[in-house]
Structures are given as structure tokens and as C-alpha cells.
Amino acid sequence: MKPKPTLKTIAALSGYAVPTVSRALSDAPDIAESTRRKVQQIAREVGYMPNRGGLRLKTGKTFTIALVLGIGDRVSEHAGRLIASVANQLRPTAYSLIVTTYSEKEGDPLEAVKRVVENGLADAIIIEQIETRDARVRYMLDAGFPFAIYGRCAWPEPVASYDFDNAAFGAIAARALLEKGRRRILCVAPPRSQTYTAALLGGLGETLAPAGGTLDILEGVHGQTDTEAGRARLAQRLAEGDPPEGIVCCSTSDTLAVLRQLRRRGLVPGRDVDLFTKESYPMVRDFEPAVMSLTEDVEAAGRFLADAAVTVIERPEAPRPSFVDRP
């Protein structure tokens, strides 16, 4: 049996002393960033797993980070990739991941966060589906609880965050459809309460308007295409007069649902209507090459958010890490 990697294993491979390796793995503030990254990369490569039980007894901390997600009847490709990425990034550190969920249809996102904080289930929280004045963010700021967010909000305090530039995505999608001669555009839009929806619609509208394009917004369908009501609403819109010439989607599941409805109506993508979608993994074009797509690197987001959560725990006085991925 192959021996289990230890701190001495990493020390031998990195050239650093064991105490330095230990402090680099726990994100100690006196360790240089280059040293920390080198040590943690080696730890990942050799499969090092810290003794978290011993650390909990020694410090009283949970050494866990909670990823709080809203889910429907099934876990989406986006959520699955985010979970895996955060977990993999945390593996060589002193922290492990727990995932807690709430129902997107009936659950209370704030209560899910409060449950983690008030029961001491984790040392930091990562959340997504951020709203402009997100109550969860306000609660954690007021409580002084470490957290990182996937998105942006309007609260004035700096927060650890990673976001995808959805305004740029909207502009890219609009230009691509305009180049195809499409002017009547339908967007299968996420809930307007989420900040990325406003950015997306702004990017679409500001690009379409000068070129004489029009934007129709279909709400109540995004994330609901696996329900009878969601499918019926989508089918109804596509059956109405003055059908869209181009359609913009924000997820793989929405795009596949649109493709199914188009086929039922005898419409051919790339000939009768053009589609532009955003995916966490480039999958749709394997089924329908005519679909134009752009990939949001959810795995990069997960890695950044994992590191950011550790930073706000270990170095609370440091500037909050923040990054915007611009396509």
C-alpha cells in the first residue's frame, strides 16, 4: 500500500521546512503568496489530506466552509461543477466543504444562511444567485461572519466576490444575432431580482437598440423548464404571432427546452431561428451545432471562491478578494 503523504512529504518535495509547509497549508498571513501556492499545489498533486479532527480539537473551529445553494428538483450542471471545484480547491487546506441547500421554489435563502451561522456549522459561507441588495449579504456583514459571493451586490461594504460579466455576455449575444440578420430577439431571462439579470438585459438592450433590434423578455421559465408549467409557458410564447428570430438563453437546460419546442413546431435552428446561450460546459453544440454559445468558467469561479473564503477566515483584515471574468 502506498504510504499516506505527510507534511514531511511535502517539505521534501518543496524544499521548505515542515513548519513553513504547515503554515502555508493553513494560509498563515506571514507566508508569502508564492510559497503558499507552491506548497498547496504539491499537496494537491500528492493527495495530502490534513488531520481536520485534530485541528478542531486544538482550535475550536469547525474547519469547514459551507456552500449554500438553491436547487430545484435536480442538481444543475452549474451547481455540480461549482461544488466539485470548491471541494477540490479546499482539499489540500485545513478546510473541508459542506453543502447545504434550500428549495428554489419554496425555500428561504436567508434562513438557510442563518441556520449555518447560528448553529456554528461552518467558519465561512459561499453563496450565489445574488440580489442587488441581498439580505443574506447584509445579515453576514452585520454579524461579522466570513463569506464570499458568486455575483455582485449594491451594499457599500467591500465583500469577497467572483462574478461573470453578464453585460458583456448580453452584448456579445446581441452582436452575434444581429450579424445573422436577426432583429426580433427573445431572452429567456432569470429572475429580475438577481443582479446578473439586470446586467444581461442591459447588455442586450444597449446593443440591439442602435441597430433597430427589439428585445422581448420571457420570465418565469428560466430554471423551470423541467416543470409542466415552465414548458407550457415556453411553448405558448413560441406559438404566438410575431415569433422571435433569435433567442438568448442562460443555461444548458433552458436551451435544450427551447430546442425541443422549436422541433415540435418544425423550426430549424440556424435557418428559421438562431440561438445564443451561456453554458458552464460546452455541451449544447454537441447536440445542435447551429447553436452559438459562450462558456462561463464555473470551475475557475469555484477555485477563486474557495481561496477567498479561506482568506476572509484566516486574514480578516486583508483586502477582500474580488474578480470579474470578462468574456
Question: Short description, anyone?
Answer:
This protein is an alpha/beta fold. It has 13 helices and 11 strands. It has a 6-stranded parallel sheet, with helices on both faces.
Any overview of this molecule?
- With 327 residues, this protein is α/β, with parallel strands linked by helices.
- It folds into three domains: 7-50, Orthogonal Bundle (434 Repressor (Amino-terminal Domain)); 64-158 and 299-325, Rossmann fold (3-Layer(aba) Sandwich); 166-296, 3-Layer(aba) Sandwich (Rossmann fold).
- 44% of the residues lie in helices and 17% in strands.
- The chain has 13 helices and eleven strands.
- The protein has helices at residues 7-14, 18-25, 33-46, 52-59, 77-90, 109-118, 135-143, 166-179, 195-208, 228-239, 252-264, 284-287, 298-314, and strands at 64-71, 96-103, 124-127, 147-150, 160-164, 184-188, 214-218, 246-249, 274-279, 292-295, 322-325.
- The strands form two sheets. A six-stranded parallel beta sheet has the order 2-1-3-4-5-11, with helices on both faces. A five-stranded parallel beta sheet has the order 7-6-8-9-10.
- Helix 9 (195-208) links the parallel strand 6 and strand 7.
- Helix 1 (7-14) crosses helix 2 (18-25), helix 1 (7-14) packs across helix 3 (33-46) and helix 8 (166-179) runs parallel beside helix 9.
- The protein is elongated and about 70 Å long.
- It starts with 6 loop residues before the first helix and ends with a strand.
- The mean pLDDT is 88.
